Amino acid sequence: MAIALVALTTALRLTGSVDTDVSWQLWIAGRMHAGARLYRDIIEVNPPLWFWMALPVDRVATVLHASIDKVLIVGIGLLAALSLAATDKLNDFGRPRQALLLGYAAVVLTVMPWMQVGQREQLVLLGTLPYAALVAARREGRQVPAWLAALVGTGAAFGFALKHYFLVVPILLELWLLLSRRRGWRSVRPETAAIVLVGLAYAVSILLFAPDFLAVIVPLVRLAYGTTGTPHLVDLLQPAVLAGTITLLLVASQQTRLQSAHSGLVFSLLLAATGFLIAYFLQAKGWAYHALPLLGCSSLAFAATLAASQRVPRPLALLAPAILLMPLAIAANAILREPAPGPDVRAAVAGMKPGESVGFIATDPALAWSITLQHRLRYASRYMGFWMVRAIVQNEQQSRPDPRLRALGREIVSQTVEDFRCIPPRRIIIARPHPGEDGFDILPFFLRDPAFAAHFSHYRLRSRTTVATYELMGRLEPTLSSACRHGV
Fold first, then answer.
1. Is pTM, for the whole model, over 0.85?
2. Do residues 274 and 295 make contact, with C-beta atoms less than 8 angstroms apart?
3. Is the same domain home to 246 and 371?
4. Beta-ladder partners of 428
């Protein structure tokens, strides 16, 4: 039943595309195969593992002559099926409870991240479920085949390595196992060995194949990335965070009542949810998808509580439908509230043919993605979005501006001019408020640079809605320069 649900949701999901970040990830994979150097030809603030993961997806899409986003969606479905199969091997609640629990897990793994399919938070959730089941089996002293433990540990390791914040989860689970088993605890197990080996291999790979991440990106992040995200603590309290925390507390309140041998899975999922809650507040961005693994693990812990209970108390039974459906309601709300790309952006690229060049200038990267991938346009800039401009402008308003941010501002505009000369966009689409409206107008920041103003003089305003679209008048020959980037 669980596999059938995964197949069904995957087939339905193929009718859509992927979100902003994932579109950028997939585009980068194609450019890397064409010879682009990540962190030099393409400026991206995230560590390289997620982008390396997209390389085989791009290769399969190329071989099959298929759309890369569709290949990714099918791949995520296969990973979800493997996650459920491993969980089934590691815990057995007996029929029909096992089928119901795995069926619900299938929905949580594939339907709840509907708008975030392929996101790092979904990937770590896919790896965490069987890993929590494995730790629960270890805690209960059950024998686990070494090959299965190694595979589960490897899958979880790749998920935890996507963000260093996620490492809170395996640390909490290992501490719980240590306190539970005491003298029976062994630090060296197939799964722990797999996690350590994957971590070491990843660290060495960064030094060998992505040194620019440490030399270029880490200083950029430390200098300007702090202005992204939410400015107020209350903005962190997204519906998914509140729902996940409430569910977590509800599950915690039932721990003393559970006497089942399967209570270990409940508690391991509870700990995982706690770890992801800590990770959410450590990131402190307020982006709803950051709470996805928190909501997923807490909901699965609640479902496991029901499966492990001999008799469900009446108050809990009355609450159960609302708690179990809450992740789906939040996913449905996200689908209704976040239709991307919007009609104004679709109109801005209307009439452009696949392969034609487009430029975007905005602090929000969602403006350019995923429509660039969907329309198979050639993306002219090395930046996903100019998020750092807000920090630069804020710095200019200080009594003692940081000269490093001033220099960063000049460098970004200079690089953009270079990019647009090497790949002259047919259209440049800019996020601009209408005259008299509140909002940040990024265009004047770029026009201060004489070289950008000279290049931009070849463009005329085509339309102005929530975005301003400028069309190239005449023809600009691409600059042939050694400064032009490779593979883009």
1. yes
2. no
3. no
4. 359, 470
